Automatic annotation (TrEMBL):
The keyword Signal applies. Pfam families: SNF2-rel_dom. Keywords: Signal. PROSITE patterns: HELICASE_ATP_BIND_1 (PS51192). Residues 6-188 form the Helicase ATP-binding domain. This is Helicase ATP-binding domain-containing protein. InterPro entries: Helicase_ATP-bd, Mot1, P-loop_NTPase, SNF2-like_sf, SNF2_N. Gene3D superfamilies: Tandem AAA-ATPase domain. Transmembrane segments: none annotated. GO terms for molecular function: ATP binding; ATP hydrolysis activity; DNA binding; TBP-class protein binding. Residues 1-18 form the signal peptide.
């Protein structure tokens, strides 16, 4: 899985990680995010041309997993939130509209922003104006209906990302044509 994600990143490709439940899609993705953040930090410290540039990544997941993702990001590298020099610093973009609007001011100081599908849809205009390193859709089959507001918002938010990644143990839920919406997000 990690080799596959590294291959995609190296060649500027987007992809689906469709491992079965429990096989570590989250930790594999965190490895990929950490690798990208490390490369951007190294390039920045060397004073070379900022082709990678420090950009935050966005993880969109079901609301029940927002806290889990933030905890996994911290645990994976053994760092607590606010640790100076932490490679991955998560920001949970959650709560009521007013709370999220206040948190939006901190988005560029985080390396990974974690939000729910509903919050992404509600904040699509602000999120689509930002440049992302990765946009990761966990349980990406949530955008299987290409006409839904969720799928339209995900596509808009992902447009300015260097890399788009979709995680799902079950990318096809009902019909094979649902895959079209997933690939429309990845390769519009």
């Amino acid at each position: 899985g990690v080799n596959w994600l590294s291959f995609l990143a190296r060649f500027g490709l987007h992809g689906v990680l469709a491992d079965d439940m429990g096989l570590g899609k989250t930790i594999q993705t965190i490895c990929c995010l950490a690798s990208s953040a490390s490369a951007a930090r190294a390039q920045e410290s060397e004073g070379g041309p900022a082709t990678l540039g420090p950009r935050p990544s966005l993880v969109v997941c079901p609301p029940t997993l927002v806290g889990h993702w933030a905890a996994e990001l911290e645990a994976a590298l053994g760092m607590k939130r606010g640790t100076p020099g932490a490679l991955l610093t998560p920001l949970e973009l959650a709560g009521a509209a007013r709370e999220r609007a206040a948190l939006m001011r901190s988005v560029t100081s985080a390396t990974v922003v974690v939000t729910s599908y509903d919050s992404m849809r509600a904040d699509a205009e602000a999120l689509s104006a930002l440049e992302w390193d990765y946009v990761v859709l966990d349980e990406g089959h949530a955008i299987r209906n290409h006409k839904s507001k969720m799928a339209i918002a995900a596509k808009a938010v992902g447009q300015r990302a260097r890399h788009r990644l979709l995680l799902s143990g079950t990318p096809i839920q009902n019909r094979a044509h649902e895959m079209w919406s997933l690939f429309d997000f990845l390769m519009p």
